[in-house]
From TrEMBL:
PANTHER family: CHROMATE REDUCTASE (PTHR30543), NAD(P)H-DEPENDENT FMN REDUCTASE LOT6 (PTHR30543:SF21). GO terms for molecular function: FMN binding; oxidoreductase activity. It comes from Virgisporangium aliadipatigenens. This is FMN reductase. One of its GO terms (cellular component) is cytosol. It holds the Pfam family FMN_red. Residues 5-145 form the NADPH-dependent FMN reductase-like domain.
Length: 188
């Protein structure tokens, strides 16, 4: 069976964000996990305006080229790792908007999470994202990777993981690949 295609979604478009650096770290870590090909999917590269489709995403009738391009990107993956900063106890607006644009392209795929934030390491954003993704039928894996912005990054803003982070990464990616294989069968 072919490797799973996993999109590592950079969940922030803010200038100066850490999400891209964190996503690249996860892609590097994923190289130790056979069975998956991991690609960077940067929301900033898709330039999605606030949701402007006249028909709900569930219909799958996309009018705008930016929506069709986004749909094609997401449809090509078997699962996702969402790299999500915590903004005011939730996810960035750009990520919520990107999820809301689509429906079938998310359905019956697996998702893992890497959160980062100040006091709770992004845990509240991850939990909120789980609720949002449930509505588009994404199966999320249990183990998140959570990074504190004050303790788990170096002076240059790069992840400085501790031993428990490596364990969480391995568990999350293992769960993601297992669920991804199972859900590929569901989608067949």
């Amino acid at each position: 069976m072919n490797d799973l295609r996993i999109g590592v979604i950079v969940g922030s478009t803010r200038p100066g964000r850490r999400a891209e650096t964190v996503a690249r770290w996860i892609i590097d870590e994923a190289a130790r996990h056979p069975g998956g090909t991991f690609d960077l999917v940067d929301l900033a590269d898709h330039d999605l305006p606030l949701l402007d489709e006249p028909i709900p995403a569930m219909a799958g009738n996309y009018h705008h080229p930016h929506t069709r391009r986004w749909a094609e990107t997401i449809a090509g993956y078997d699962g996702f790792v969402f790299v999500v900063p915590e903004y005011n106890r939730s996810i960035p607006a750009a990520l919520k908007n990107a999820v809301d644009y689509l429906f079938a392209e998310w359905r019956d795929k697996a998702a893992g999470f890497v959160g980062y934030g100040a006091t709770a390491g992004g845990s509240r954003a991850v939990e909120h994202l789980r609720q949002i993704l449930a509505e588009v039928h994404v199966a999320d894996v249990r183990t998140p990777v959570l990074l504190g912005v004050f303790d788990d990054f170096d002076a240059d803003g790069r992840p400085a993981p501790r031993p428990h982070h490596a364990k969480a990464v391995d568990m999350m990616l293992g769960e993601l690949l297992t669920w991804g294989r199972a859900l590929r069968t569901v989608r067949a």
